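Weekly modeling sync, notes
Attendees: S.R. (lead), two postdocs, one rotation student

Agenda item 3: backlog of single-chain predictions. S.R. asked that every request posted to the team notebook include the full sequence so nobody has to chase files. The rotation student volunteered to paste the first one in as an example of the format we agreed on. Action items at the bottom.

Example entry:
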Amino acid sequence: MAENFSINNNGVKKQKQFVHDMLMFELPKLTRTLINGNRFYSTPDGKKYPSITTVVGFHKKQNILAWRRRVGEEEANRISRESASRGTKIHTMCENYLKNKPDYTDGHEDEHISMFNQFQSAVDRINNIKCQEMSLYSDQLAVAGTVDCIAEFDGKLSVIDFKTKRREIKPEWAEDHFMQCAGYGTMWEEHTKLPIEQLVVLVTTATGNCQIFIEDKDSYKNIRVPQLQSLINEFNSANN
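Predicted structure, as returned to the notebook:
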């Protein structure tokens, strides 16, 4: 069990407890489907919108294919499987930790627990959680997806994305993540009318580092949303 506890006045270990300030109304339920190999979400009124992960990743397809040719298919498959497994396990720990579950590390490997612990102090800056792993969509952008977390981070309502990486990333490498967060923010605001104040990307790496990237509302609205709209247009042009 990881040592993510405080000590109370009696000297007893006590796990941090997060406040869940959930909405008093339900967000729309979405279903997932594949169309020509791409993930889409079906909305309650029958619209089909592409996954924001698919859209943001679309413009990098050629780079990924070039990387696979460079390292070889077998090695590329190994790295991809390892990265996907690591990401899923650390996301699960993060989700359960935020849900105040005391056994959030049970069944996980020491390597993954260590990676969670690296950014646990950053995760502890989250509170007043609105939603976790929630599917959302935007009619304005015609896109959908599943957000990691919407909550306060340092007291500001934020879209929060948890990322696992093999090594540290440069700030400019987080741009795709911020575009994705901007999409979630737009989806959230359409359905709740509650304004997002900032975008937060928390990164933990296999090399032992934690990185925190934050962009304010001005960047979110005036830079990331237009960038995302361009990617959506590019994706739609190539797939219609």
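Discussion: group reviewed the output briefly. The radius of gyration is 19 Å.
Action items: rotation student to repeat for the remaining queue; S.R. to check formatting next week.
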